[in-house]
Amino acid sequence: MLLADGFEKAFVGLTIPSPKGNEVAVYDYMLCIDVLMKRDGMNEEDAIDYFYFNVVGAYVGEYTPVFINRATIEETIENHG
């Protein structure tokens, strides 16, 4: 399992092992953005840009962490039909 350095406050758990037996770390997207804003003094737009380019875009193999955007069922249906 690989961890996203510096995002400990955004860690929410692990995935259930896949058929291959892999667990990966799970992080909350909005908490990651919050970390960048507070820790690095970024505004929200810069934090989002940085996060997508440098964190989400950094695939490091089958143990790459996943990032979730928490939402209710109602929010999901409303936003995605």
Question: What does this molecule look like?
Answer:
With 81 residues, this protein is α+β, with helices and mostly antiparallel strands. The chain has one domain. It is 41% helix and 14% strand. It has 3 helices and 3 strands, in the order E-E-H-H-E-H. The chain has a 3-stranded mixed beta sheet with strand order 1-2-3. Helix 1 packs across helix 2. The protein is globular and about 40 Å long.
Major sheet: arrangement of strands: 1-2-3
Structural class: alpha+beta
Strand content: 5-15%
List SSEs in N-to-C order: EEHHEH
- Integer tally of domains: 1
Unreliable stretches, pLDDT < 50, 5 or more residues?
A: none
Shape: globular
Q: Give the total of beta strands.
A: 3
Would you tell me the overall average pLDDT? 92
Task: Tell me about the largest β-sheet.
Answer: 3 strands, mixed
N-to-C span: 34 Å
Q: What percent of residues adopt helix (DSSP H or I)?
A: 40-55%
Instruction: Kindly provide the radius of gyration, computed on alpha-carbon positions and rounded to a whole number of angstroms.
Output: 14 Å
- Helix run count: 3
